[in-house]
Amino acid sequence: MKTLSHYLNGQLSAGQSQRTSPVYNPATGEQSAQVALATADETREAVRIADEAFVAWSKTSPLKRSRILFKFKALVEEHTDELARLISSEHGKVFSDAKGEVTRGLEVVEFACGIPHLQKGEHSMNVGTGVDSYSMMQPLGVCAGISPFNFPAMVPMWMFPIALACGNTFVMKPSEKDPSTPLRLAELLKEAGLPDGVFNVINGDKEAVDVLLTDERVQAVSFVGSTPIAEYIYATASAHGKRVQALGGAKNHMVIMPDADLDQAVGALMGAAYGSAGERCMAISVAVPVGEETANRLREKLVAELDKLTVGPGLVDGPDNDMGPLITREHREKVAGYIQTGVDEGAELVVDGRQTTIDGAGDGYFIGGSLFDHVTPSMRIHSEEIFGPVLAIARVASFDEAVSMINAHEYGNGTAIFTRDGDAARQYCEQIQVGMVGVNVPIPVPMAFHSFGGWKRSLFGPLHMHGPDGVRFYTRMKTITQRWPSGIREETNHFTMPTM
Ligand code: NAD
Question: Where do the segments described as Disordered lie (predicted)?
């Protein structure tokens, strides 16, 4: 059995611990590898390596750091298909989706290539008589990243390109469910010219994570995952004096106004609810049609579209399926359990994905797309994150009712409104308590040069990921106020252009 281990000091490094975790191909249910789970000592060693590498890397000029990232970008582009195959074989998402994930990650690398400009700081002359002030944005030191299973390439790439560009060194702790892609990214970084020790990957579970949260050499922790763990990460790492951004779970609503282009809204909903088998933190899991007529028409169109949804392996010869399997057998059972909960709670199960026949599914962790109608806010299928291909229709009578229902929800990651009414759209953007809002855009993931993050229990910490917040998160500002005696060099006090 292949054992995936760590990437330390510029090379793959076999784990010392006896603990491992199985890695499966979700499309077949077969174990493809096992991943080493680092001990606390191995994790401390990763931190030591990154701490040592910080001395030279933080003094490397931004231009040189940027040039390495430019090379990394070219290498990732060259290896996109290979990376997408790796993602699909361990995560299960379809190939086109996996390629899209690599592209979204690359956009953050492109943003980070602009670091000489982004890290310039500010300057003011004559803030007092003969006094100037300027600020510098200095790197923090060793930064840690802890990522979830659902984007094994993109989420690490939300973090390390900007951290490295700013002059930090990094210890990445990927999800133990699909660890191969971050290891391959580490090799590509080395090929791009990144000095050894600047980027390290430690595979593991809570034992490794707890070292990253408490070791005094780690200055900042970026986390993406479920809300209970995000909350734990934020509380523990903050209590140990670290800067933390911890992104959590989600339950995202799409409001469909009576005047919306319904075909456009349904097309958007199908991708947003069922794409990547609903295992996206920005997936739409609740459709909120305003008015009975909108709801009835929406439901009818969704049922027709669900009939055409193709479910099957992510890697196939020929056209992609619309959606692949879920990540694990346990997760499929959890999603199936939520479908039963919805039925027991009194929601109407219009399409039951548990009954979907899937050609060639074998022992893969497949489940078809499900649709509920007449879902109300008190039901668990509305209040909890299912993280699977289950869409709920929650009918409301008015725009105001839609806004109140969404604002009362504990999560606030993403949301969308579909309408032709500019005023409704504007009111929605202003009133909704959600971090990322789409107007006729179902999955409003901000581009890399903007920042990504939710509100409420979808994000712990003040700074969002990538974009301007990413640069702020990975740098510390220092402001210098300086006065130099003036008037003592009267005769040379006028400036002349030097001759070339
Ligand atoms: P998870 O919380 O189970 O795991 C995330 C990471 O935390 C993994 O690296 C895991 O090894 C580690 N971890 C798990 N339990 C831990 C513990 N007790 N102590 C310390 N570390 C622990 O999340 P997941 O199942 O991998 O990912 C799915 C979740 O991530 C969903 O809730 C989804 O909404 C969320 N997510 C959020 C965003 C966002 O931007 N807000 C993006 C992607 C995924």
Answer: 1-29
Shortest-distance atom of ligand 1 to CA 327: 25
**CATH label of the domain that carries residue 286:** 3.40.309.10
Q: Which atom of ligand 1 is nearest to the CA of 281?
A: 34
Q: Judge whether 500 lies within some domain.
A: no
Report how many domains make up the chain: 2
From 113, 143, 166, 281, the catalytic residue = 281
H/E stretch holding 1 reads none
For 128, list phi and psi in degrees, rounded to 5. Answer: -145, 180
Same domain, 368 and 395: yes
* Closest C-alpha to 7, from 204, 207, 183: 183
281 is catalytic: yes
pLDDT value at position 467?
97
Domain that includes residue 15, residue range: 3-248+458-481
- pLDDT tens for each residue of 194-248: 999 999 999 999 999 999 999 999 999 999 999 999 999 999 999 999 999 999 9
* DSSP secondary structure letters along 463-496: --BSHHHHHHHTEEEEEEEEE---STTGGG-S--
- Centre of ligand 1 to C-alpha 76, Å, is 25
296: amino acid identity, one letter: N
CA dist., res. 450 & res. 452, Å (int) = 7
State the amino acid at position 432 in one-letter form.
Answer: I
**Region for 456 from its dihedrals, namely left if φ exceeds 0, alpha if ψ lies in -120 to 50, beta otherwise:** left
- Name residues of the chain where pLDDT drops below 70: 487-500
Residues in the chain: 500
Same domain? 348 vs 399: yes
Compute the distance between CA of residue 414 and CA of residue 434 in angstroms, rounded to an integer: 6
The number of helices, as runs of H, and strands, as runs of E, in the chain is 16, 23
Regarding whether 391 and 261 lie in a shared domain, the answer is yes
CB of 147 within 6 A of ligand 1: the answer is yes
pLDDT digits (tens, 9 = 90+) for 62-118: 999 999 999 999 999 999 999 999 999 999 999 999 999 999 999 999 999 999 999
- Pocket flag, ligand 1, residue 170 (CB < 6 Å): no
In a domain, 498, yes or no: no
Specify if 492 maps to a domain: no
Q: What is the DSSP letter of 276?
A: G
Pair 108, 42 in one domain: yes
**Same domain assignment for residues 344 and 205:** no
> How far is Cα 404 from Cα 85, in angstroms, rounded to an integer?
43
What does pTM read for this prediction?
Answer: 0.95
350 found inside a domain: yes
**One domain, residues 145 and 212:** yes
> Which residue has the CA at smallest separation from atom 34 of ligand 1?
249
249 C-alpha to ligand 1 centroid (Å): 8
Tell me if 353 sits within 8 A of 285, measured CB to CB.
no
